[in-house]
Write a structure and sequence with these properties.
six-stranded mixed β-sheet; 32% helix; alpha/beta; seven-stranded mixed β-sheet; 13 helices
Length: 413
C-alpha cells in the first residue's frame, strides 16, 4: 500500500534508538504501524555531541512534520568557512549562499535535542530502553521475522536494524561481509560553555589534523577535532592534554575552547567506515539503515543525514524492501566514497600536497561558490520520495495522515 496508510496490524520492531531508528519509528508510526523500539542503553540520551543537518535531511524531517521546528532550534545557519591553523581564511560561506544553492539552510544542533523531538512523535510505550535485542530470524514472505529479547521473543512484519556501525543485525543478515574498516584517523568531540567566545563557525585544516568550532543555540560551543593516528591509540595522560599538544597553538577561539574544557568533557573515538558496500540493505523482512548499512567517515557531515534519509525512504517502501535497497544503496555508496576522498584531502600530511590544496581552495572560492558548498552538490539538494517539502508557511505536514498523499519520484545523486 505504498503512499497510503498501512494496516494497524502491521508490526514493526526497530533495533536501535538513535537518530535513524527513531526517525524510522516515527515515520512508520505515522503510516499506521504498531512500532516497538528496542534500545540497549538505559536511556535515549546520546553521547554529547552536535549534529549538522543539511537541507536533504531537513526535507526528510518535513515529511514527519518537524522540519521547521528543528530548523528553528538550530543556532548555526551556514556562516563560516575553512581556515588554516594560523587563522587565515581559505574559503568563506554564508547561510544565504547555502540556501540559494540547495533550497534551504545548513544548521547545527545538539543530538539530544533531535533525539528528544523524534521520541516525542511516538506513543509513550513504543520505546523500551535497557532492552538488548537479537535478530533470530529475518523471516520471509511466508513467515514473520523474529527478534529475541531478555523478556521473550517478538514477531514482526518488519525489523529495522538501526544498531550502528558494529551492527549485530548486519552480521546476522550478511555473515560473510567483512564489516567496517579503520578510516585511519581518530576524533575528539566536546560540547561546553565558553564564556565570552565570539567567532564565525569554521573548520580548520592543518597537517594531518582538522579542527571545527560551532556555536549552539543554548550558548554552548560544539567543537571537534580529527587527526591521523594508529587505531586504538590513547593519550598517555588525558585527552584534553592531547588536544592541547596537537591544537593548543592554533588560532582563536581554539585556545579558549581548550581552556574551558575539562578532561572529562572530551570524548575520543576512532573512525571506521564500511569500505565494501553490502549486497543489499535488506533480507527477508529485515532492513538496515544508517551506520548499520553504510557507515562513512564524518568528513562530509552526512552520517546522521543519510540515516534520516534512509528512515523516510524505508517507511515509503516498507511493503517492498527491494525498492528500498534500490533507492538507497547506490546513493549511500557514492556518498561514502566521496567522504573517504574528502578525508584524504582535508587530512593530508604532505607539506607539498597541503600547499597545492590550500592554494586551489582559495582560488576556487574566489571564482565561485566555496568548496564547503561545492562538496554538497548532489547531496544537499536531495528530496524525499514523499512530500511535503517545507509545504505552506511553516513546512509542517498538512492535517491528517501525510502518508496518504500521492508519492513523487525520488531524486538520485
Amino acid at each position: 500500500m505504498r503512499g497510503g496508510a498501512m494496516a494497524q496490524s502491521t508490526r514493526v520492531v526497530v533495533i536501535g534508538g538513535g537518530i535513524g531508528g527513531l526517525t524510522a519509528a516515527a515515520a512508520l508510526h505515522q503510516r499506521g504501524c504498531r512500532v516497538t523500539v528496542l534500545e540497549r542503553a538505559r536511556s535515549l540520551e546520546p553521547v554529547g555531541a552536535g549534529i549538522s543537518l543539511a537541507p536533504n535531511s531537513l526535507r526528510a524531517l518535513d515529511v514527519i512534520g518537524i522540519g521547521d521546528e528543528i530548523r528553528d532550534l538550530a543556532a548555526w545557519a551556514g556562516d563560516g568557512g575553512l581556515r588554516t591553523p594560523s587563522g587565515r581564511w581559505l574559503s568563506r560561506s554564508s547561510a544565504e549562499a547555502a540556501a540559494r544553492r540547495f533550497g534551504g539552510p545548513l544548521v547545527l544542533l545538539h543530538r539530544a535535542t533531535l533525539i528528544k523531538r523524534l521520541a516525542a512523535l511516538l506513543p509513550p510505550d513504543a520505546v523500551r530502553t535497557a532492552a538488548a535485542a537479537t535478530l533470530a530470524d529475518p523471516g520471509d514472505a511466508g513467515r514473520p521475522a523474529r527478534v529475541s529479547t531478555p523478556d521473550g521473543e517478538l514477531e514482526a512484519d518488519l525489523v529495522v536494524g538501526a544498531d550502528g556501525i558494529h551492527s549485530a543485525v548486519r552480521r546476522a543478515l550478511f555473515p560473510g561481509h567483512p564489516g567496517p574498516v579503520y578510516s585511519g584517523f581518530t576524533t575528539w568531540r566536546v560540547v561546553i560553555p565558553v564564556p565570552g567566545a565570539e567567532f564565525a563557525s569554521h573548520e580548520t585544516w592543518g597537517r594531518g589534523r582538522v579542527w571545527g568550532t560551532h556555536p549552539l543555540k543554548d550558548g554552548r560551543v560544539y567543537a571537534y577535532a580529527a587527526a591521523l593516528a594508529p587505531a586504538g591509540q590513547r593519550a598517555p595522560d588525558d585527552e584534553k592534554a592531547e588536544l592541547l599538544r596537537r591544537y593548543g597553538d592554533w588560532h582563536d577561539p581554539i585556545p579558549a575552547v581548550l581552556a574551558a574544557a575539562r578532561p572529562e568533557d572530551v570524548l575520543r573515538h576512532d573512525v571506521h567506515h564500511i569500505a565494501d558496500p553490502l549486497p543489499a540493505f535488506h533480507r527477508g523482512r529485515a532492513a538496515l539503515l544508517g551506520d548499520a548499512a553504510h557507515a562513512m567517515p564524518p568528513t562530509l557531515g552526512q552520517g546522521g543525514n543519510q540515516a534520516i534519509e534512509d528512515a523516510i525512504v524505508l517507511a515509503h517502501h516498507c511493503d517492498g524492501l527491494a525498492a528500498y535497497t534500490a533507492a538507497r544503496l547506490p546513493r549511500t555508496t557514492a556518498i561514502t566514497r566521496q567522504a573517504v576522498k574528502s578525508a584524504r584531502l582535508n587530512m593530508a600530511s604532505s607539506r607539498a600536497v597541503r600547499a597545492v590544496r590550500d592554494t586551489a581552495i582559495a582560488a576556487l572560492s574566489k571564482a565561485g561558490p566555496a568548496l564547503f558548498l561545492r562538496s554538497f552538490d548532489g547531496i544537499a539538494d536531495w528530496r524525499p520520495p514523499h512530500g511535503p517539502y517545507a509545504a505552506g508557511k511553516n513546512g509542517k505536514a498538512p492535517a491528517g495522515n501525510p502518508w496518504s498523499r500521492q508519492p513523487i519520484e525520488e531524486s538520485t545523486p
